[in-house]
Amino acid sequence: MFTDEYYMNEAFKEAQKAFDKDEVPIGAIVVCNDTIIARAHNLTETLNDVTAHAEMQAITSASEYLGGKYLDQCSLYVTLEPCPMCGGALFWSQLRTLIYGASDNKRGYTLLKSSILHPKTTVINGIMQNECSHLLRTFFEKRR
């Protein structure tokens, strides 16, 4: 059985792909029954689509893989805390577990006064927080 750190490192590899494409470096993977069934990273610039966040891409890919819209047996690993839009999509997908690396103190879903995740979703945060934060800081420093 793989660890949360192992899976977050796989999401981090996706974030690095986004960084290399000059996209905001956020990566995500979906795991079901100890198998990675979806990999994604931000594509908002590439697709010219504000909804093309890593989480949204991963949800779509995982749903296609499973042949259904519910991810109630799945875990999402993402390098940055999801925004409210992605949190809403995770609610509708009935995600079992959300694991994220860095917190988003400006746009994260936890800034809302009430949780927007499904009541059965378990949340774990801070996995590889330093590495995830560092990649984001490096990206934005490079753009200044």
Q: Explain this structure to me?
A:
This protein has 144 residues and is an alpha/beta fold. It contains 4 helices and 5 strands; from the N terminus they run H-E-E-H-E-H-E-E-H. It has helices at 4-20, 54-66, 84-93, 129-143, and strands at 27-32, 35-41, 74-80, 97-102, 122-125. Strands 2-1-3-4-5 form a 5-stranded mixed beta sheet. Helix 3 links the parallel strand 3 (74-80) and strand 4 (97-102). The longest helix is centred in the N-terminal third of the chain and has 17 residues, at 4-20. The termini are far apart. The model has no long low-confidence stretch (mean pLDDT 96).
Question: What secondary-structure arrangement, pairings included, does this model have?
Answer:
Elements: H1 4-20, E1 27-32, E2 35-41, H2 54-66, E3 74-80, H3 84-93, E4 97-102, E5 122-125, H4 129-143
Parallel strand pairs: 3-4, 4-5
Antiparallel strand pairs: 1-2, 1-3
